[in-house]
Amino acid sequence: MKGGWISKRCAALLCGWLLLLVSAVAGAGDLVGGSIGVTSDYVYRGVSHSRGHPAAQGDLRLRLGGNTQIGVWASTLDHKYADDEFQVDGFLSYRFDITPEWQMRVQYTHSAFVNDRSPLGYDYDELAASIAYQMRISLTAAWIPNAARYRYWGGPIRDDAYAYDAAWLEPLFSIWHASLGIGYYDVSSLYGTGYAYWHVGIVGAAGPFGIEALWIDTQERAAYMAGGAYSEEIVGGRWSAAVRWRF
User: Fold this and answer.
1) What is the tens place of the pLDDT at every residue in 170-192?
2) Phi (first) and psi of residue 76, to 5 degrees
3) What is the pLDDT of residues 80-109, one digit of tens each?
4) pTM score, two decimals?
5) Facing residues of 152 across strands?
6) Full residue range of the structural domain in which residue 34 is found
7) DSSP state of 175
């Protein structure tokens, strides 16, 4: 998005769409939940999808009964080839309550990049499984069967990729928790290697509002996968702060 800020048109469309959905399902009570918010930098697996600029985000979830959820998540973007581009993820998940303290979740997600003008197109699918203890410690493994890469000398290719994450929340005081996380994105089938990423920061909740401030960093070789001088805008150490209203 030009000018380094959230596209007004795209942000308005996203927020308006979410508010319309919230109004339409307001009578559904506990069956429906979601959030609307803004982040100073949309960073996923150590890579910025907004080039260090703010992004508007939101999600809507519907509980189908028991521990099954279906929903949609969306965010504005700022990519090299983007103008009024945004990401929309549709997902279906199921939670297993192993014990009162241990939970397991499996989730399928399809990520679509609307108005994507890149030479390749980066839509992809993901199947993830995670296990969590007291909602404080979690381990996640994900398989992406159609991860994409564009090679100037060989054209576009798609192949398997894998992601592994560990996260820990530790209560500090009042509404605040320390947040620590580390992960590894294995894209060796596309690039011959992968890279590690990590974060440290604080998260909190005040009524319906969630707040977070994180320092995020990646291994230096992630810059190679990001591509040339452009990589400085999307990888490496950076702060990301977010505020979300949950309903």
Assistant:
1) 999 999 999 999 999 999 999 99
2) -75, 160
3) 655 567 899 999 999 999 999 999 999 999
4) 0.86
5) none
6) 2-246
7) T
